[in-house]
TrEMBL record:
InterPro entries: DREAM_LIN52. Belongs to the lin-52 family. Pfam families: LIN52. GO terms for cellular component: DRM complex. One of its GO terms (biological process) is regulation of DNA-templated transcription. The lineage of its organism: Eukaryota, Metazoa, Chordata, Craniata, Vertebrata. This is Protein lin-52 homolog.
Length: 107
């Protein structure tokens, strides 16, 4: 009885990859990415890496070697630094307004 049920679930339908309804066009860039992943060992670096300077590569290596906790601590430090920079910029803008250094928008 179980064999009858399993055989009733079988489908012998042939799926043709030429059908745009069954197999829509892939997302842009996916085919190139998939092709680059098939052979991960290449002599040339990936396109995105060609634009990096040696300092950027060193920073990537440093960040890649951090533990999760250390990476989170680094991110928190960057957030704090960005916040402090925002506060300093706000103070300078306020100071500029008081000294009439900054140009005010005309109405």
């Amino acid at each position: 009885r179980g064999d009858d049920f399993e055989s009733s679930l079988l489908s012998f339908e042939k799926l043709d990859r030429a059908s745009p309804d069954l197999w829509p066009e892939q997302l842009p860039g996916v085919a190139e990415f998939a092709a680059s992943c098939k052979n991960p060992i290449t002599n040339s670096p990936p396109k995105w890496m060609a634009e990096l300077e040696s300092e950027d590569i060193e920073m990537l290596k440093e960040l890649g070697s951090l533990t999760t906790a250390n990476l989170m601590e680094k991110v928190k430090g960057l957030q704090n630094l960005a916040y402090q920079l925002g506060l300093e910029e706000s103070r300078e803008m306020t100071r500029g307004k008081f000294l009439n250094i900054l140009e005010r928008p005309k109405k």
